[in-house]
Amino acid sequence: MTVIIIIAVLILALIAAAYIVMSLYPAFGGRASKAEQVRTSRSLQYRQGKFVYPFETAAAEDKPEGGLSILRDFLKGNPNSRPKQPLQPVPLVAGSIRQGRDTRATWFGHSAVLLEIAGAAIFLDPMLGRAPSPFPFIGGKRYSSQLPVELNDLPQLDAVVLSHDHYDHLDYGTIRALQQKTALFIVPLGVGAHLRRWGINAERIRELDWWEETSFAGLTLTSAPARHFSGRSLLDRNTTLWCSWVIQGGQDKIFFSGDSGYGPHFAEIGQRYGPFDLTLMECGQYDLRWADIHMMPEQTVQAQLDLRGRLMIPIHWGAFTLAMHDWTDPVERVLRAAQQQGLRLATPRIGEPVQVGAAHYPSIPWWR
Fold first, then answer.
1. What residue ranges carry the coiled-coil annotation (predicted)?
2. Are 326 and 367 within 8 A, CB to CB?
3. Residue 6: φ, ψ to 5°
4. What DSSP string describes 183-219?
5. How far is it, in rounded angstroms, from Cα 106 to Cα 116?
């Protein structure tokens, strides 16, 4: 009996310690106030205390065959899951940013994209840290040892735009570094609580539900559906919303997928807002066991057709290993599927700008 009591006490102590760490360590983010929870509860996406996608969506660990088989595969490893040598980004000259009104997108790896449109500059999901983890010294590190441009050298930005609060999209260190360089933070419902905890004034944060829009600096942004989930700890699963973004400025319309499994929302977005001059579409970190929340590359191409996209840049690859496939599989598969459908793809190196409407787009298979 004494041994059982000791074990129980130890378990309770570990639970208490974990709760204290998650409550006090800022990288885990913040929690919505009572007033904010009231607003959240009015969302059509909010049911029984959680945000949900309209159709049944399961993460890998929710499926009977999921958790143990995934753990086994991760422990087994894949020697081709990351590059043999660090990737070398194309240097981006800070002085070239915001120097024209042409629309151009510069990929920083994974889903981080610096978008210049109608004279404005916005950073989409700027996860620029070492590893997608609350503790940067833990977890698989970035494939490249440097960024296209140092954060301190960036000019002032009109906005940082976030799709959801997972660590590979919302990074505490990056947000702190961009805090004084950014006028606005545009986020899905509930995500503002993290930013407020990190010292960003509420007046600089705009939180949107699906199909809500906001305007600034000559741009109009609309929060659109995505099929995914959210959370930064064991205690906040799906308490914040996730989304994709429709970005309109000047003559151009851009679509940013965020993270999403395939679903009918792509066709709905295409019907409401398409065609799109440029789409930034996730195509990596997939597995059949979690296909509800991350598209397979062939589904990415189908989503592009649904959206009526004219040019696609594949994202959500090229920076971190978060799945068991070879690190080049996402771009190879999406390129092959796009060619079969006659779709246009740009495959820039990290740091290489893509200008919408240009006669030619980057298409060299640099990863091979």
1. none
2. no
3. -60, -45
4. EEEEEETTTHHHHHHTT--GGGEEEE-TT-EEEETTE
5. 8
Query: How many distinct helices (H) and strands (E) make up the chain?
Result: 8, 15
pLDDT tens track, the chain, 368 positions: 565 555 555 555 554 455 555 556 799 999 988 888 898 999 999 999 999 999 988 765 565 556 788 888 888 889 999 999 999 999 999 999 999 889 999 999 999 999 999 999 999 999 999 999 999 888 789 999 999 999 999 999 999 999 999 999 999 999 999 999 999 999 999 999 999 999 999 999 999 999 999 999 999 999 999 999 999 998 899 999 999 999 999 999 999 999 999 999 999 999 999 999 999 999 999 999 999 999 999 999 999 999 999 999 999 999 999 999 999 999 999 999 999 999 999 999 999 999 999 999 999 999 99
The answer to whether residues 229 and 59 touch, using CB atoms and an 8 Å cutoff, is: yes
With CA atoms as reference, report the closest residue to 51 among 61, 62, 66, 37: 37
Gap between the Cα atoms of 163 and 175, Å rounded: 14
Strand partners, 106: 114, 353
- Residue-range domains of the chain with CATH: 94-355 (3.60.15.10)
Strands (E), 89-166: 104-107, 113-117, 120-124, 157-161
Backbone φ and ψ of 144, nearest 5°: -105, 145
**pTM score > 0.90 for this model?**
yes
Q: Where are the beta strands (DSSP E) in the chain?
A: 46-47, 50-51, 104-107, 113-117, 120-124, 157-161, 182-188, 205-208, 213-216, 219-224, 244-249, 252-256, 278-282, 312-315, 353-355
DSSP 278: E
The alpha helices in 182-315, defined as continuous H runs, are: 192-197, 265-273, 297-307
Regarding beta strands 113-117 and 120-124, do their DSSP bridges make them parallel or antiparallel, or are they unpaired?
Answer: antiparallel
Q: Within 10 A of 250 (CB to CB), how many other CB atoms are there?
A: 16
- For 89-104, b/e burial (b = at least 16 CB within 10 A) is beebeeeebbeeebbb
Beta strands in 257-364 (DSSP E): 278-282, 312-315, 353-355
